[in-house]
Design goal:
5 strands, five-stranded mixed sheet, 52% helix, 354 residues, alpha/beta
């Protein structure tokens, strides 16, 4: 009996201690909160609609940054397996294929999954859904969100992802700013690999995704720079939802292309133009364009000359018997517009971005 009483007293002291810690609340910073989760990784799905538009495109980045911060607090790995507002994310959660789904608080949980999931405390207009039986994870999520969302770091994150990056007022008023997107710091670092002005690399990313981490193409390209997983793997990048890794893979691919045209003796302006064209259409396709221009007796080192010749490549008279055209017919209008649009956006950034 005495042993039972001692155990009861110790248990009571433990419960009282935890109640007092919760009542006291967080003191300062995340260091005052010790979190523990008995796994070495988490898998998440960002179930929030976030397309290629600056008014909505940053929502995925906001959730990714927050989820990464939570995983870091637990000292475990985070994997994102998908984004977008899809009903199957609830099945993925219920079946144990993902551990967390970021959702809008107004989203209704399908009746078939309502009894299997629980929502965290809301933050802004969002919440994280976890499996109902995963009590430990839900507790850790709520403790962490309760602390972090009241801190300055979260306020900085809100300013970064929810401010307007619309440059029209600066253009109209002839004034200048120093921000293009929430990812400027990453772009500035990575642009050095190319020897490019960071505003030019920003123009590429704007054209590719409008800075939407959740952007996906029908061809399987992902994220800010619309990189295919097979291309990223060449450079040792496997998490294309990580903005740092995505831009790393994109810039390394651009550098590989750039070296090709530098070695061919193109001048610096045309190196950039051909690099942009090949990033859009593929190196071998642009090689076809160069060969075709050369066959026409034109200057294949001048992108504007090559671009003016490309429309002929859609004419059977020119491409049917041309053995040097490995890919056959090529209309090329999209690629020509791509180069123009990127350089036009770059000129715009030059006019307003310090």
């Amino acid at each position: 009996m005495r042993t039972v009483r001692i155990i009861g007293v110790l248990l009571g002291m433990f419960i009282l201690g935890n109640i007092l810690r919760i009542w006291e609340g967080p003191r300062s910073g995340t260091d005052s909160l010790e979190l523990y989760y008995d796994r070495d990784s988490l898998t998440a799905y960002i179930g929030i609609k976030s397309g290629m538009y600056t008014s909505k495109g940053f929502l995925t980045g906001f959730q990714y940054t927050l989820l990464t911060g939570f995983a870091d607090s637990l000292d475990i790995r985070l994997g994102i397996i998908g984004t977008g507002c899809h009903q199957n994310c609830w099945s993925l959660l219920s079946n144990g294929q993902v551990d967390i789904v970021a959702v809008h608080v107004s989203d209704s949980i399908p009746q078939t999954h309502a009894g299997a999931v629980s929502l965290s405390m809301p933050f802004r207009d969002y919440a994280w859904a976890v499996r109902r039986e995963d009590h430990s994870l839900l507790h850790q999520v709520n403790m962490w969100l309760g602390l972090v969302t009241r801190g300055e770091e979260f306020a900085d994150m809100e300013r970064r992802f929810f401010r307007s990056y619309d440059l029209s007022s600066y253009i109209d008023n002839g004034t200048r700013t120093d921000r293009i997107s929430p990812y400027d710091d990453i772009v500035k670092r990575r642009s050095r690999l190319l020897g490019w002005d960071w505003r030019l690399l920003s123009a590429v990313i704007f054209k590719e995704s409008r800075f939407s981490m959740g952007a996906r193409s029908r061809r399987g390209a992902v994220g800010l720079m619309q990189v295919k997983p097979s291309t990223a793997a060449v450079y040792g990048v496997y998490d294309l939802f990580d903005p740092e890794e995505n831009v790393k893979a994109g810039t390394m691919f651009l550098r590989q292309i750039q070296k090709r045209y530098t070695a061919m003796g193109f001048d610096s302006v045309n190196v950039v133009k051909f690099t942009l064209a090949a990033y859009n259409a593929g190196e071998s396709r642009i090689e076809d364009c160069i060969n075709f221009t050369l066959d026409q007796g034109l200057d294949f080192t001048d992108w504007e000359v090559v671009a003016s010749a490309i429309p002929l490549m859609a004419n059977p008279e020119y491409y049917v018997d041309a053995e040097y055209l490995r890919h056959g017919k090529f209309r090329g209008g999209e690629t020509i517009r791509y180069v123009k649009d990127v350089l036009s956006k770059y000129e715009e950034y030059l006019s307003v971005i310090e």
